[in-house]
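Here is one chain, start to finish.
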Amino acid sequence: MQLNRTIFWHQAAFWQKKIDVFHHALCRLVSWFTLFMVLLTFLIVVLRYGFNLGWIAMQESVMYLHGMVFLLGAAHTLRVNEHVRVDIFYRRFSTKKQARVDIFGSLFLLMPVNIFIFIVSYDYVMRAWRVMEASQEAGGIPAVFLLKSLILLFSFTMLLQGIAEVISNVAKLSLHKQSSVVAGK
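Its structure:
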């Protein structure tokens, strides 16, 4: 029985590491989107006010990049523990208690909310794909369906990171328990 449990936790740690590596790579890509968004915004302003030129697709692309930055970067923000939260009590908790709070939050808030977002958004996104929804603006980007797909990617990546967080925090509790046994507490 102990061997099966050990194998399970080794596999869980393996998948947690894979999820973290995936989100780190996604974050690196998103950071390039941020730079591109800033440069594109600068170009739009220069063209508009310097040369009286403008293209709807270029302006919409900033909106697409903005959506990608926030929706695809959210899981990495969770991974590095930078999400906004009420930290009045949490920061005073022991590592063990913080791990318990994080497990509870992941299992009963993060995961159910993201499953709900995925379920509720699925038909909305699929409808956009069925009609290949495009911008309503003349000269706009003909790929609104791709923008809407970010909603599903957001909930999926957040769910994956939630799983990684639960594994990580259970491991923290397990290590805490093992160190207590070794210390004779």
